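Researcher: Structure for this, please.
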Amino acid sequence: MLKYIMRIVTSVFVCMSFMTTPALSADRVYEKGSVWNISFVRTKPGKYDDYLADLNNVWRRYLEAQMKDGDVLSYKVMNVAGRRKNESNLVLMVEFKNWAAFDRGDEYFDKMAKKLQGSVEKSTQANIDRGALRTLNGNMNLQEVKFKK
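Model: Predicted structure, token format:
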């Protein structure tokens, strides 16, 4: 009998915890904002201008298309001042509307590759060729936290 009562009490507490979750989230002083993808890039010696030309020709066109679709809100290329040896000299920043916009599937990008570069194969080869211009030192995916007023 005691086990039966304990199960009922436990069940009641579990149910109550689910009911209070919206109330707890309403008390937060922040809300989640846009999603950012930050890439750290080190251009190879003598290839800085070539890499920026490639970004302007290919990367920017993809992002502009995604902006038209409403997925990308903004993008930036930042030059790193005062970097140390082997550190990134460029930071690429892309702001997405939300995680769903960030995580579009292969079908979406295959379609975009065909439209912007002629085929998926050409897009893949361009990515391979880009390796001669730069080294990716890593990236981060972040979500903005905005304080409520």
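Researcher: Any notable elements?
Model: The domain at 30-147 is CATH 3.30.70.100 (Alpha-Beta Plaits). The chain is about 50% helix and 30% strand.
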